[in-house]
Amino acid sequence: MTLPTLNDYVSLEKIGSGSYATVYKALKKGGNHEMVAIKCVESSTLSKSAIDNLLTEINLLKILKHEHIVEMKDFFWENGRIFIVMEYCDGGDLSVFIKKKKKLPECTCRKFLQQLALALRYLRCHNVCHMDLKPQNLLLVRKPTLKLKVGDFGFAQYLSNSERKFTIRGSPLYMAPEILHSNEYDASVDLWSVGVIMYECLFGRTPYSSNSIDELVEKIKTCQPIEIPKDAHISTECKDLLLSLLKHDPSQRISFEGFFAHDFLDLEHAPTAENYEKAVNLIQRAVKADAEKNSREAFHFYCDALKYFIPLLINETDLQKKKYLRIRINEYINRAEQLKQSCIDSKNDDSQKSSQSIEKNMLQLNIATKIFSHSFPFNELRALSKSTSDMKAALEMGEVAEQYFAEGNYVLALEKFKSSLGILVRVLGKEPPGRRRDLLHQQIQLWMKQAECTKGLLATKTMGDCINKSYESHEQCILQ
């Protein structure tokens, strides 16, 4: 295979190919030797429609600049070929990620879906419909943290909420029924595709698995019911969003507004620059109320701010910013804890609605405190484990166990806890004294308690007992 020779880039390897383009990994000459992905298109082989698609893609990518959209850095013509220089995504695509993991825990699915929703919300603001959403077109960046980015805008077009089209575009496996029926359609076809992607993330396969395209198309056209696997353990919010997306009748499908506002995604508290400003504003109001001796109002503002700050902290990759943010959040949690007592003292004098609001914020404060206190020792241990492959793999397995536990899938949670602890206990026996050994011992103790909790939950006889004990045991595990 001959790699393209370019003036400003060194081609390293072929990393993908499509119907009319080949993608290469390349290194930019000079400067900081930036790694890029270059899409190479033989212009002489393109049909008129393919040329139109390519020009639309280039024009769109000039405009679209978003954290969760693959960035176009440059484009040029050379020797009868068109080159589009893109941001390089070191984690491959979501399709490969799902195949490797078999299926994704609900919390991982939520993270990816939240990032995809942020990108789609940005696209809707620009009246852009992607038209070819599928795992192969959702690229992943691993460093400094796992992040999803929407790519390949070859089928994208400007399409406002009021406009309708007839042209067939996209991939059959992820294509909305109204397109396959050759009916007119609008931008909501992207939402059907999101539903199929979500289903595949959760269950490791698409809703309509088929042996041929014809069989697949027939299943979608005849509106065969979407079935949730019987052994699946997903939350009510997750199931509600999934089935709301996979409505065959577009008039019954969830709207973009409903999608962006859905509780499962919680975009309201997503780690964005806009939400950072909201958090800062809430803290300023909390400090002001605190200075005016309005304890209850200050408590509510502190708790509301923490709902924004905790995701921001977890998502922050700059170590200095993370350290500063951690110090500030610790101060806010401590002050909210101090104010909580005065709210407890006054709760009995309040109306039922006011008391419920106080209790809700107290619960949120408890959750924030637990997340805050638990995440940092583990993150430190994970960073220290990078040089030891067994420890690193076992810690990842333990994280998956926690995710299954949170989702109520106790059989898989216990299986993962046992596998993780089997490796970690062996590693601990060989670990020399020091900070890493102390953190590892602490983590093993925590997961042993959670494994015991999981065993207890599996032994319960009724669903009601299971739900109650799950809540109590989970609280005890975290507190201990």
Number of helices: 16
Query: The biggest beta sheet, please?
Result: 5 strands, antiparallel
Strand content: 5-15%
Shape: globular
Succession of helices and strands? EEEHEEHHEEEEHHHHHHHHHHHHH
Distance between the termini: 59 Å
**Gyration radius, to the nearest Å?**
25 Å
- Give me the count of strands: 9
Task: Characterise this structure.
By secondary structure, the chain is an alpha+beta fold. It contains 16 helices and 9 strands. The chain has helices spanning 48-63, 94-101, 106-125, 177-180, 189-203, 213-221, 236-245, 256-260, 273-291, 295-315, 319-347, 352-384, 389-407, 410-430, 435-459, 463-479, and strands at residues 9-17, 21-28, 35-42, 72-78, 81-87, 128-129, 138-141, 147-150, 157-158. Mean pLDDT is 83; it is low at 461-480.
Care to give the gist of this entry?
The protein is built from 16 helices and 9 strands.
Which descriptors would you attach to this protein?
16 helices, two-stranded antiparallel sheet, 56% helix, disordered C terminus, alpha+beta, 480 residues
Write the layout of secondary structure elements.
Layout: E1 9-17, E2 21-28, E3 35-42, H1 48-63, E4 72-78, E5 81-87, H2 94-101, H3 106-125, E6 128-129, E7 138-141, E8 147-150, E9 157-158, H4 177-180, H5 189-203, H6 213-221, H7 236-245, H8 256-260, H9 273-291, H10 295-315, H11 319-347, H12 352-384, H13 389-407, H14 410-430, H15 435-459, H16 463-479
Antiparallel strand pairs: 1-2, 2-3, 3-5, 4-5, 6-9, 7-8
Helix pairs in contact: 5-7, 9-10, 10-11, 10-12, 11-12, 12-15, 13-14, 14-15, 15-16
